[in-house]
Amino acid sequence: MRRITPRRNRTGRFWPKVACVLALALALPGARGAELSADEVRAILAGRPGATVADLHAKDLSDLDLSKIAAGRANLSRANLFGAKLIQADLRGANLEGANLNGAWLMGADFTNANLAGASLLSVVVLGGEVKTMPVFRGATMTRVRMIADLPGADLSGADLRDATIGVNIRNQGMGQMRTDLSGANLSGANLAGADVNRTLLPFANLRNANLRGVNFFRARLSGADLSGADVAGADFTEADLDGTVLRGAKGLSEAKGLDRAENLDKAIR
């Protein structure tokens, strides 16, 4: 695959956002060196008899090219997949609990119904190369996940994102503000109860019938997002942009916080 190189501006410097992502990636833990080769991993996955689950628990698979692997139902819990190429990988139903996916290449990867509880997905790569499709997280268990990623239009419908940390970490502001982009993403029926999505980009996201109880939406961009039928009791909308946000049929609005300090509440659709 063509190597992705950071773009430079006219002064010869990296574009600020790219530089921030690279700085974060270099600071992330996990790049120790793989203990198996890509061919060995593929052999383990291909050699499992019948209904036997391939066991790659806690294996260091960092920086391996595992594109298009068939790892459905495999045990990759606590595996180190730092910088691994998982392009178009089939990870449906796989156990990735506590896995390190920081800097992993996820274009076209399918995580449908996978277990990603407590996993880390910081600065994942979803743009560049020949594959243009977003990873799929439909129905995935993503409780307590840590994620900073550009996932516009991604499918997270029915995903369990309770207590997830998707928002900006203010302590890393020395490297510039990096925030998750879920513009136009499908989060219908997802469970985000207690999640921190502060400053996240959610314009035109589909949040219909989602569980948003206690979500931190501080300064999140929700312009044009559809929260029809969503439960927003206890959610904090302080300084969130609600321009064109659909709140029709939303439950618990009287129990939501910060609506009086939200931006463009008068332009929300109720």
State the main characteristics.
2 helices, disordered N terminus, 270 residues, single chain, 8% helix, little secondary structure, two-stranded parallel ribbon
Please provide the ordered H/E string of secondary-structure elements.
HHEE
For the biggest sheet, the summary is:
2 strands, parallel
What structural category characterises the helix and strand content? Answer: little secondary structure
How much helix is in the residues? under 10%
Using only CA atoms, what is the Rg? 19 Å
Number of strands: 2
What does this structure look like?
This protein is low in regular secondary structure and 270 residues long. The chain has 2 helices and 2 strands; from the N terminus they run ααββ. It has helices at residues 16-27, 38-46, and strands at residues 120-122, 146-148. It has a two-stranded parallel ribbon with strand order 1-2. The longest helix is centred in the N-terminal third of the chain and has 12 residues, at 16-27.
